[in-house]
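Lecture 7 notes: from sequence to structure.

We start with a single chain of 325 residues. Read the sequence below before looking at the structure.
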Amino acid sequence: MKQLLNMEDVQVRIKTHTQEITALELEHLTLHEGELVALVGETGSGKSMTASSIMQLFPTQKAYIGSGRIVFEGTDLLTCSRKQLDHIRGKEITMIFQDPMSSLNPVFRIGDPIIDVIRTHTGVSTKEARERAIQALKFVGLPDPARMLNRYPHELSGGQRQRVMIAMAMVCEPKLLIADEPTTALDVTIQSQILYLIDKLKKEKGTSVLFITHNLGVVAKMADRIAVMYAGRIVETGRTQAVFRSPRHPYTRMLLDAIPRISEERDRLPVISGRVLSPAEVGGGCRFANRCPRVTDQCRQAVPPLATVGDWHEAACFEPLEEAR
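Now the structure, written as tokens:
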């Protein structure tokens, strides 16, 4: 498969009142055409910050990309002009967020931003843009799409609003869709429908997907590859089934062990003791050292690089787990 996105040595820094901290240190992350890569990890691990760095849309003006390369189809996004970046965002790369209500402007009908996106990136007439918007709403399974264009966000359910966001994201047929926990605020039944739509987009349109989630069950079902993040770094990456079958980083193993299984009787669920260090607390060693059962002096003194531990399988650990046989 042809490589679509390549992130190398990306460092995101945040200025505070007293210091400047490094929130994200990404050695490398790749995404190929037609592939779904899942980013997983605890809250605060850097998943959404990774997405923000690709889009260069940070929640605060105090955050910035200090170094690295983000290459999309041969173009380094960090060297693009604002005009080039505006062309790529919304057309070649799009993003959907976990709370569709806060992503839609309550004073505009839902058709307005969809038509605006189409006209901005294609230059077609308003009439043609409206027809494309109707087709996009039809693709995501919304009933009576022509009438739906004239409704306001508060008139729709949470699942319907997320379908609108997916329609807006795919209407210009992007090559990369970033889905930042798109099902978190939805009930289980609606979650399944939204996941089906994302999978449909990948299979029918050939769209590559960077899927951010806490749900390892979803990852096992949908993802081609997985990247596990911890405290702003990728600690393990590989083909999904290989990582699930034989995790090599202790953090990945502990995440998988914490999943409740209906086939096992447990009095108490396993937990990962301790807490994730904040960026301001990170020292010079492995960021998982304070919680790791396999920690050594080397772990506390040096940062383990991502190293090959198998076919398409890498782990950032000085004491990786043995490969399962």
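The chain has a mean pLDDT of 91. Keep this in mind for problem set 3.
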